Structure formats: structure tokens, C-alpha cells
Amino acid sequence: MSEIEISRELDEYYTNKIVTALVGIEADVTKVEAIGTELAKENFTEDVFIVTGDYDIVLKVRFPNYEDLQDFLVNKMSRIGGIKGSKTMMVLTIKKDMGQKM
Prior knowledge:
Radius of gyration: 14 Å
Shape: globular
Strand order of the largest sheet: 2-3-1-4
Strand content: 25-35%
Largest sheet: 4 strands, antiparallel
Distance between the termini: 33 Å
Structural class: alpha+beta
Order of helices and strands: HEHEEHEEE
Oligomer: single chain
Number of helices: 3
């Protein structure tokens, strides 16, 4: 399946559905705090964690549709200096959110 086909299927699946994702960000170590502060300003960013391990920052984001998530990842995050790379994990099912069992 090509990237275009995958994107089309995701668009179709997530149309009119809330999209929750976790984004692991690799960042320039000297800019981690500034990047975290900048990402926290975004309306759809629910949580910003500065962490140790494979990533420097982990975000929890929630969007009204897949298209808005895609715009955030491709356009908004690419404008923030110091981000070296990222991996996005789409949430399939939520069992507990903000302390509440689903």
C-alpha cells in the first residue's frame, strides 16, 4: 500500500472521529524546555512531558479529525526549531483517560 493510499484510508476512518495520538519527539537537548513550552501553547495538545529514554518529549494530542492531526505534525511541528525527529502513535482504544475508566 502506498503512502497516499494509507493516508486516504486514515482520512476515511477518522473522519468525524476524535483522534488521540501520542507523539515522541527527539530534540536538541539545549532546546528541550523551549520546545516543550512552545508545544504546550497548542490548543489540541493535552499533555507535554519532558522525559528520559528514546524521546526527549512526549505529547498527548487530541484533534477533532485526522486532517487536523496531519496539519499539526506536518506544518506546525516542522516550524519549531530544535526538533530532530518524531514518531506518532495513534490511539486505537482508550481504557482509562485522566483517571477515569472508559
